[in-house]
Each structure stands twice: as structure tokens, then as C-alpha cells.
Amino acid sequence: MKLFEYEAKDIVRNYGIPVPRGRVACSPSEAYSVAEELGCSVAVKSQVLVGRRGLAGGIRFADNPEEAKRVAGELIGSSIRGVRVDCVLVEEKMCISREYYLSLTVDRGIRKPVLLVSPLGGVEVEELVKEHPEALMKIEVDPWEGVKPFMARWVCGKLGLSKDYWKTMWGIVSGMWRVMRDLDAELVEFNPLAMTCDGGLVALDAKIIVDDNSLYRHRDFLEKAGREYSELEAVAKRYGFSYVELDGNIGVMCNGAGLTMATMDIVKQFGGRPANFLDIGGGASRERVKEAMKILLKHPRVKVVLVNIFGGITRCDEVANGVVEAIRETGAEKPIVVRMLGTNEEEGRRILMENNIPMYTGLEEAISKAIELAGEV
Question: Fewest CB within 10 angstroms: 13, 100, 290, 321, which?
Fold first, then answer.
């Protein structure tokens, strides 16, 4: 479960980690009051559970309370990368000389927490590893012993900080560990951890993700569970399939995460752009298939739907019936390209043919057709 930035900062502040002064505001008048209380130039930051909000215009600056009120009025109620902004964080604008990356997360490959450190702050760690792998340092943490003081010294060394910062960095790193331990967090991230113009270190942005499996131990979080899901993701969760929004125009529906990822990769390789990841799972009923198809058929960005099913415990006739029922309920006229193999394949083919839906046996042929129909070639 993702926490909003203001929630994460309230938590880490209680663990002794320095963050900018500020408070959340859910109306322009509240933003005015916070800015007036701070008495300085402020940053007005949209509180949404998606990344890259700054690039999407979700972070603005104001020099006085009136300007903060105006900016908050423009942001609250707007949409940042498809997510509505209900509140903003109004906090003091910091004078920054350097930005670093620091996070504590779980490396599932080695089954240990790891500290990730880089002098290149402000960029996503995935891009960092891809473009500058030498700039990222990984420190393994024994889950029974936790972080140790020497790790803070290693962090300072990687960031080019003198020994004058050892004590300060130990306070930050040890605080991150206690947050992870106490909240059952999968991620505690500061990006950036900033060096201020007067030589201080401050968590300019903070992100915490709590393990969903631990929510029964955290009642305050339990009541907030699921709020990070979009409307469509919430529908997927209700009907038992996996859905992730992307930015393409070819709707993809498969059974099994591996098959779905492979299909998306081939679509991309052939020059198409997947609009989503949608895995109906094994043994999907026609009801689940129908609800999954309805998402793709009603999505304004999807121009064509590509269905790729390998029927084992999933029956092709159930998939075909679900597709047909979704078309009837939505009345959508989007082109649908289906490739199905496996259990009850012939019956599935018959159902589709009766409803004038073409079915292919070759994956490359089906994908090429979907890309053509999407206007990508």
C-alpha cells in the first residue's frame, strides 16, 4: 500500500529524519493559511499516488499566501497522469545545492533488505541503473541485525560527503530502518535527499510502501487500503484479474503473467504500443473474461483489442463466451483480434465465428493484424 507524500513525511519526521516544514491542504483557503503560517516561499505539491508528477505539472511554487491559494486552486480538482488531485502539500521552498538518491527496499532475489545509494538524485532508479549503473551502490542489510553505523559511513563515501556528516547520515539511515521494521514497509525512499545551501541534509521527497500482507497489524492503514487503485484497477481487483494501465492503444488480454508480458514484448517489438497489462489468470470464468473485456472495449485510448489465450485450465469456450457477452453489453464496435489454443479450442472458434470475430492460430499473425488495425503501420 502506497502512502501519500505528506503521510510519509509525517512518519519519518517522527523518526528524527529532517523534512521541510509544511502541512497538507485540501482547499485553496487552507493552502493560504499554511503558506501564511510558514512565512516564506512555498512549494505546492499535488498529493497523488503516481510518479513523475513534477514533469506533469503537479509541483508548483508560490512566493506568498495569495499565490499559494491561486496555485492550489488550479491543482486541486485537476488530473495528474489520470489521477485526480484532492489535496496538496504546502511546504517551505528549500534552497538546494545537491540532490542524492537514498532508499531502503527489499531485494527479493537475495531475500534481504538493501540500501540503494546514488549521488544522482531526482531520477528514477530504473533509469539510473540503465544509464549509469556505476552510480548506484547497493548495501545488503542483515534482516536480523538491521543497519549498522559503518553503512552510514559507506553512504557518505558514495555521496562524496565528509566525515562531518557521519552522525547525521546514521540518524537518517537508522531512522529508515526503524520505519521499515515498525511499519512492515517494502520501501522507504528519499528521492531526492537534498543538501541545502547551508549544508544540511533534508528529505525533499519521501515515499513509503507498506506490505499489503501486513495491513492486519496496522489498523490505521487498513482502512485506507485500495485507494491507490484507479477506477479500472479497482474493478480488476473485484473480479479477480490483474490490470495495469499503460500509454499505448492496443488493448492486451491474456491468461498468465508470463504470457501477458511476452505478448506485450512482441507487440512492442513489432512496432505496436500496448495500452495495458491484463492477465485474466488461470481457469477464468466467462464472467471474469466479460468484465476484463468491458474495460478494454470502453477504454477511450484502446483502438483494437488483442486476445491471446493458451487454454489449459482456462477453457477457450468460456473465454469466447465472455468476449461475446462483453460486446453485447457495451455495444462497442472496436475490432477484436483473438488467438486461442488449447482446451475446447474448436468450440471457442465456433462461438467466435458465429459472432463474426476472427480467430488466429499464429501469434505473430494476430499481433501484426492488431497493429495494422490500430493504425501503427
Answer: 13
